[in-house]
Task: inverse folding
């Protein structure tokens, strides 16, 4: 019998970004009571400490992970079992990557929500530093909301625009909020126009707009369901793509050369054997939103090629997400 699904509520951000306060306030809210025991995993300790006496409901077990070696499926399953937990809340270490967390989670743990906090006093500094920028974007990517607290620090002209662009390099779906010392909150309302027409009979993706389309299609696949797209891509052949399929995609850079990665969606193409890895092709394909092995039991964008034609390598072969 398969293990029951355990919802995971994830709070990410760097040390002293306000994660502990955010989690404490969440657990003090009676509306967060789901009638289940809760395992609270704390992966780094800052100046603030939890006060379980203020939690709005009983059955919360607080466990501290002091070393990354404790982040493994066996240990996490043990902690879940000991707490008799029906859900998990994680305050994640800002210096650990999200991939390390995903690889360590038991198979029945499903991330239901991811929220990020950031200290506005240091956010722009991190955004302009390549090594920290990479970790910053790593935490933004899965988040539904980023809260820049102590927002008085980023009221200078152009600061909100710079942070907006930073977030949009990782995802176009995430909401952005600014929290001030008096408790007021202002939401980002900077528009994000797409550089292509999603209502066209064939959505033409410009050579350097592939990264933007990839993020948007990943974040809002229903928008593209049953629509036709055309884009320039490189060929990647892998058994994981599925039967009679390959992955057309592009190498994309998040912030620096060290972060370049290949991104694409599985594509059904009967003549895929005629293609060679790294070939440049112009793909015209129908997008479908459906189940696929690569999405680990969930739905995602799956392409069906209408045509795959040889193409020339572009002048700039690496794209960005903004």
Result:
């Amino acid at each position: 019998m398969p293990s029951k699904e355990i919802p995971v509520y994830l709070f990410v951000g760097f040390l002293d970004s306000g994660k502990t306060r955010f989690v404490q306030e969440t657990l003090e809210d009676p509306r967060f009571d789901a009638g289940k025991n809760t395992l609270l995993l704390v992966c780094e300790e800052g100046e603030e400490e939890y006060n379980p006496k203020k939690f709005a409901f009983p059955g919360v077990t607080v466990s501290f992970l002091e070393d990354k070696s404790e982040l493994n499926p066996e240990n996490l399953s043990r902690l879940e079992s000991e707490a008799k937990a029906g859900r998990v809340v994680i305050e994640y270490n800002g210096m650990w990557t999200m991939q390390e967390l995903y690889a360590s989670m038991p198979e029945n743990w499903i991330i239901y929500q991811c929220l990020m906090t950031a200290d506005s006093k240091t956010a722009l500094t991190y955004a302009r530093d390549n090594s920290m920028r990479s970790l910053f974007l790593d935490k933004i990517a899965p988040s539904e909301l980023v809260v820049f607290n102590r927002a008085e620090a980023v009221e200078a002209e152009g600061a909100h625009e710079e942070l907006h662009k930073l977030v949009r390099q990782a995802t176009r779906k995430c909401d952005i909020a600014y929290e001030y010392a008096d408790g007021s909150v202002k939401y980002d309302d900077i528009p994000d126009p797409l550089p292509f027409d999603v209502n066209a009979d064939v959505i033409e993706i410009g050579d350097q707009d592939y990264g933007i389309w990839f993020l948007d299609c990943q974040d809002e696949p229903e928008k593209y369901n049953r629509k036709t797209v055309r884009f320039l891509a490189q060929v990647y052949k892998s058994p994981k793509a599925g039967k009679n399929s390959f992955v057309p995609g592009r190498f994309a850079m998040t912030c620096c050369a060290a972060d370049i990665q290949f991104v694409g969606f599985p594509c059904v193409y009967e003549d895929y054997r005629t293609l060679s890895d790294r070939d440049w092709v112009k793909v015209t394909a129908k997008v479908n939103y459906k189940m696929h092995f690569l999405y680990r039991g969930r739905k995602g964008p799956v392409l069906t090629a209408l045509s795959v034609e040889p193409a020339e390598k572009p002048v700039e072969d690496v794209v960005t997400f903004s």
